[in-house]
Design brief:
It catalyses: prephenate + NAD(+) = 3-(4-hydroxyphenyl)pyruvate + CO2 + NADH. With about 375 residues, this protein is α/β, with parallel strands linked by helices. The chain has 13 helices and 13 strands. The structure holds 1,4-dihydronicotinamide adenine dinucleotide and 3-(4-hydroxy-phenyl)pyruvic acid.
Length: about 375
């Protein structure tokens, strides 16, 4: 069964109906722990921070450099180089380590977890992780945001990565319904689309739509690397080769772990692709048949849904913290208006007890910088 839910974005109602009452809303979670503060873990933390979904965000990572960067970039509030009692205080734990270590990491965390913590992971393969951790980590529900990039590490993390992304949730027969519902809330509040799919079906589908394309990208690059005219091929590589092989630029370790963990489903997909390639090879002698296949490919490719990543490029956005006092929206917009800075997009984000936040979009990075200086100049905290 597949359930597709519309996201509930924490966008403010129109200015006529907006009241300060929403400033009294509590964040969805108190303490949150991110285990593996890289591209995905960092993006979850930033998304939660930007939308005030957590009171305090902690990170654990075996790499001291990752912890240092996460603190310096203000992605999290506190960092830990080891697991300990702090884990038992978490309301939400997110495993965002490489796929190959998720089961082991989850089993270790089970020894520290409190009974009330909601646990999830963002790993690219779900079957083995969900099987091993359901009922072991309390309130565990597996998940997989279908969003990423060819970059790795916390310095590449950004909240916009998850915005409007399809975020697969993979319930198991023993999944606790309350935990499932809380995870759905989190995904929707992060601005993503929760899509529920059983773990085994998820793995079969991502083998075809994500893992096989990755192996193909590796294979196409290997053909170039092994060719006696490698240098010339590099010069000739135009948009097609680049588009088709972009994912080979991602973290090789992350991707290696991902394909190995899904090897059964991937073998089937490779087998099917072999048959298709053979068919295509034969169709070189049957141009009419090849044209039919090419037309079908164009129809399929052209009907892929267009994913709108965010209302404005993430780079031109500012988030301003505002206290729970009357007239804040007027003060912010008047200060910018008086300086001739045009606000292209205006959104009131989720709110915590002591105040709220406004997200604004600007047409250019220069205008955003000007807005930042003006708002900081009149005492606002801006990110
Ligand atoms: N990169 C992508 O496009 C996507 C990745 N994912 C999944 O997200 C997870 C993380 O991937 P990325 O953020 O891309 O990788 P990354 O390499 O950017 O970050 C992984 C982090 O995990 C840390 N780590 C390594 N061993 C650990 C352990 N035992 N415990 C805790 N942390 C540990 C690393 O030091 C690193 O900071 C993986 O499971 C991956 O399958 C999911 C969707 C997209
Ligand atoms: O960069 C892209 O287009 C990707 O497809 C990245 C990606 C990598 C791994 C995942 O589990 C999900 C998405």
């Amino acid at each position: 069964m597949i359930i597709f839910l519309n996201p509930v974005l924490p966008i403010a109602p129109s200015s006529q109906t907006w009241t300060c009452d929403i400033f009294m809303m509590k964040p969805l979670f108190g303490k949150v722990g991110i285990f593996g503060i890289g591209l995905l873990g960092g993006s979850v933390a930033l998304g939660m921070r930007e939308r005030f979904l957590a009171e305090e965000i902690h990170a654990y990572d075996p790499d001291p450099g990752a912890l240092e960067d996460a603190l310096a970039l203000q992605v999290v509030d506190k960092v830990h180089a080891s697991l300990g009692d702090w884990v038992s205080e978490l309301d939400l734990g997110v495993l965002a380590a490489p796929v190959g270590v998720l089961v082991n990491e989850g089993q270790k965390l089970a020894r520290f977890s409190g009974p009330h913590t909601l646990w999830t992971d963002v790993g690219s393969v779900k079957g083995p992780v969900v099987e091993a951790l359901t009922g072991v980590l309390p309130n565990f529900v597996g998940s997989h945001p279908m969003a990423g990039s060819e970059k790795a590490g916390v310095e590449a993390a950004h909240a916009g990565l998850l915005q409007n992304a399809v975020w697969v949730i993979t319930p198991h027969g023993n999944t606790d319904p309350t935990a499932l519902s809380k995870l759905r809330d989190l995904v929707q509040n992060l601005g993503a689309y929760p899509l529920e799919i059983p773990p085994a079906l998820h793995d079969r589908l991502v083998a075809r739509i994500s893992h096989l394309p990755y192996l193909l990208a590796v294979g196409l690059n290997r053909l170039v690397a092994q060719d006696p005219h490698q240098d010339l091929l590099m010069f000739l590589a135009a948009g097609g080769f680049r588009d088709l092989t972009r994912v080979a630029s991602g973290s090789p370790r992350m991707s290696r772990d991902m394909v190995v963990a899904n090897k059964e489903a991937l073998r089937e997909a490779i087998e099917d692709l072999r048959a298709v390639m053979l068919e295509l090879e034969n169709q070189l002698e049957a141009p009419e048949a090849l044209l039919e296949t090419a037309l079908e490919a164009k129809r399929t490719r052209d009907s892929l849904p267009i994913v709108k990543r965010s209302l404005l490029p993430v780079m031109n956005e500012l988030v301003v913290q505002v206290p729970d006092k009357p007239g804040q929206i007027a003060t912010v917009s008047t200060a910018l208006g008086n300086a001739g800075v045009n606000i292209k997009n205006f959104e009131v984000l989720a709110i915590r007890d002591e105040g709220g936040a406004i997200r604004m979009g600007f047409a250019t990075p220069e205008e955003r910088e000007e807005a930042r200086q003006i708002l900081e100049g009149i005492g606002y905290k801006v990110r």
